[in-house]
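Take a specimen:
=====
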Amino acid sequence: MKNHNADQNFTSSFSGLLELVKYLRSDSGCPWDREQNSQSLTPMMLDETYELISAIESSHHSEIVEELGDVLLHIAFQIEIAEAEQSFSESDVFSAVISKYVNRHPHVFGDESFESTDELKQKWEESKRKEKNNDRESILDGIPASQPGLSHSQTLQSRASHAGFDWDDLTGVREKINEELDELENSENMAETTEEFGDLLFTLVSYGRKMDLDVEQALRFANVKFIDRFVKMEMLAKQRSQEFVELSIEEKDELWNTVKASESKHDE
């Protein structure tokens, strides 16, 4: 296998990254890279995106740099594959995104003005609908079903809300949550239980959305917090010469509360 010439430099820019990918996919490059296509790379691109999000939410700057690079590499791969297939070019990508976002900012690049961010968001959605008008029959068309479930629910609800289909305030959502809880508790078989639990989750997403939360992010934060506390429980049990899995639920609860209390003292 031929090695890359160490004297060949790739500039620290997106153009340099594209040149790297082009070289990797050339006859002098890597067989695996040459075998890839736009679809085979998508699972890895999704993984890298989640890793980037995790790094950003953890505020680990060195990890953010690394994960941004990995995501950019996948973008460069998609462009290089498309150019090789003559589907579209790098210029097409940048031209399309620049044009789209200039058009979606008439308050910056035009004469329009808005009284509030809510009005601006509504105008943003109207602009998106006009752009896609020829391809979409429903307001909900174009939302990727591959989104994580909570994000998908929030996007669906946001679209519907911009069309005027929403509760006026949290009171209505809270009442709906109680209604869905009752229906869940009264379900008679697994199919009904699954359906009602889904309805409850969907309504809880509405509650978070009405509070201007990113519900997917909120759950990720909760997951991280649970992992951190659980690991500390295990460590505390080990320090006490206890076998964690053999402890009673009451003893585990005591460990949990001890960990929580230590967090509170740390925050003071």
About this structure: DSSP finds twelve helices and no strands in the chain.
